[in-house]
Design a protein that fits this description.
Strand 1 and strand 2 form a beta hairpin. Helices cover 30% and strands 26% of the residues. An 8-stranded mixed β-sheet has the order 8-12-13-20-19-18-15-14, sandwiched between helices. Helix 4 crosses helix 6. It has 2 domains: 95 residues, OB fold (Dihydrolipoamide Acetyltransferase, E2P) (Beta Barrel); 266 residues, Bira Bifunctional Protein, Domain 2 (BirA Bifunctional Protein, domain 2, 2-Layer Sandwich). The structure holds 4-amino-1,4-dioxobutan-2-aminium adenosine-5'-monophosphate and magnesium ion. Magnesium ion (MG) binds next to strand 19. The site of 4-amino-1,4-dioxobutan-2-aminium adenosine-5'-monophosphate (4AD) has 23 residues, from strand 13, strand 19, strand 20 and helix 14.
Length: 447
């Protein structure tokens, strides 16, 4: 029996006869030869059909085979440096070919330039393109590496609710839904508050799931539905949190490099930039970051940049600030100690400086900016009540959360990492919407 192989394993079959099952991505005709670029889900491989090798009639069908036709190809594997594909360098000589379906001729995503809106309307077909295939393969490995690292470092996976009674990250980005006799419920902005309950039973936990933000922002960094992993740890302060984050992110990058190099290369990613992503990562305070941005602003001759880089102590960073900062570092950089006024209610104040909180964001290099946000949490019950009042958050909804501070409160910390932003950075792509199979933004819920 001829083995049915996956294209990603083709290097192991040179000189042998194999069967590949997939779809015709491209076709080039050269007289008595037809080159089919066939994708099978695990890779792209060139299949070469020679008229003399095939039954009369079959070759004529192949010459007219439309893009996306489904096929089963059998023949010998040859190594050939020139052969295109992912991974390239191999081809299959077609001895037999079964055409499972000859696709319709009017394929919407035919091989030519398409506008972004058109591509997004056809996301169900766009997914088949090599670039989208490569990005989403990287995504799957990022997700697997996240779980692998946490599971093997003593974290217990906890699924936190999606339907929630209250805000975690501020009331302005809540999606609301009617909820029987209870009135309203909100789609989760974060599982953090529940993980803060979970640590008192399990010590170190993480949740990993879809997260919803009714973000009005139309930037290339914002989705309304995205995936976030949120580790949370008891007996952990801000410094220990940063140590953990750099190990975690370093592991994810190195595993992606190990398993997804063909995909990254096909995207044109500069691998040497990712190879440098090993701990430790640089750390700067918010105060120093503001001073750095101010200095860059003073040094630039570009009037537009001068405008965009305007900053005063107390402001949150915008995308231009983060981009400018991260261009100064080869590794992700921790910015810690943000002003209390720009961060969520639950963050522990800096000792002796209540206007600053023990928060930390990790900004990815090459202009990518924030990929994680975290903090040490307030452990004092009285201070937490004060902060809820300042943020005008209702005590009833947070009753359970306040109780966590009365029964064995400890210093604890955690962070959230957005999967799509991390994948965008690793793949070196412009827009986060390509880093999730079916993106949701304020302007899009289709397909
Ligand atoms: O900084 P954020 O809002 O932090 C929290 O939600 C905390 N409760 C996490 C925690 O401490 N457990 O979000 C964390 C990360 C961001 O750094 C970013 O990567 C991603 O989630 N993120 C988004 N990704 C895509 N689209 C959006 N609208 C996002 N908002 C946040
Ligand atoms: Mg944040």
């Amino acid at each position: 029996m001829t083995p049915i192989i996956r294209v990603e394993q083709i290097a192991d079959y040179v000189g042998q006869e194999v069967t590949v099952r997939g779809w015709v991505y491209n076709r080039t005709d050269k007289g008595k030869l037809v080159f089919l670029l066939v994708r099978d889900g695990s890779g792209f491989v060139q299949c070469v059909a020679f008229k003399g090798d095939l039954e009369p009639g079959l070759f004529d069908q192949i010459v007219r085979l439309p893009q996306e036709s489904s096929v089963v190809v059998t023949g010998p594997v040859r190594a050939d440096q020139r052969a295109p594909g992912i991974p390239g360098g191999f081809e299959v000589g077609v001895k037999q070919i079964e055409i499972v379906q000859a696709a319709d001729e009017d394929y919407p995503m035919a091989l030519k330039e398409h506008g972004v809106d058109f591509a997004l309307d056809n996301r169900h077909l766009w997914l088949r393109m090599p670039s989208q295939w490569a990005i989403l393969r990287v995504r799957a490995t990022v997700i697997s590496a996240i779980r692998e690292w946490l599971d093997s470092n003593g974290f217990v996976g906890m699924d936190t609710p999606i339907l929630t009674p209250a805000a975690c990250e501020g009331t302005t980005t809540l999606f609301e839904t009617p909820y029987f006799d209870e009135g309203k419920a909100y789609l989760a902005q974060s599982g953090q508050l529940y993980n803060e309950a979970n640590i008192f039973s399990f010590g170190k936990v993480y949740c990993f799931g879809p997260t919803f933000r009714a973000e009005k922002s139309k930037t290339r960094r914002h989705l309304t539905e995205f995936w976030m992993v949120e580790p949370e740890m008891a007996f952990c302060d801000l410094d220990q949190l940063m140590e953990l984050e750099e190990q975690f992110v370093g592991h994810i990058v190195q595993r992606v490099l190990k398993e997804r190099t063909p995909e990254l290369k096909s995207l044109g990613r500069d691998l040497s930039k990712l190879e440098k992503i090993t701990p430790p990562f640089p750390r700067i305070s918010y105060d120093d970051a503001v001073a750095m941005i101010d200095q860059m602003r003073a040094e630039t001759d570009d009037p537009e940049q001068k405008e965009l880089l305007k900053i005063e102590w107390g402001m949150d960073f915008g995308a231009p600030h983060e981009t400018a900062l991260t261009n100064r570092f080869e590794k992700p950089v921790f910015v810690y100690g943000y002003p209390t006024q720009v961060k969520a209610f639950y963050m522990e104040p800096w000792p002796g400086r209540p206007e600053v909180c023990k928060s930390v964001d990790l900004l990815a290099p090459e202009g990518y900016g924030e990929i994680t946000g975290g903090s040490e949490r307030i452990s004092s019950p009285d201070l937490l009540v004060e902060r809820l009042d300042q943020h005008k958050l209702p005590h009833e909804a947070f009753k359970w959360y306040l109780e966590l501070r009365r029964f064995g409160s400890v210093p604890h910390s955690g962070f959230g990492m957005g999967v799509e932003r991390t994948v965008s950075w690793m793949c070196g792509i412009e827009h986060i919407r390509e880093a999730i199979p079916f993106p949701r933004t304020i302007k899009r819920v289709y397909p």
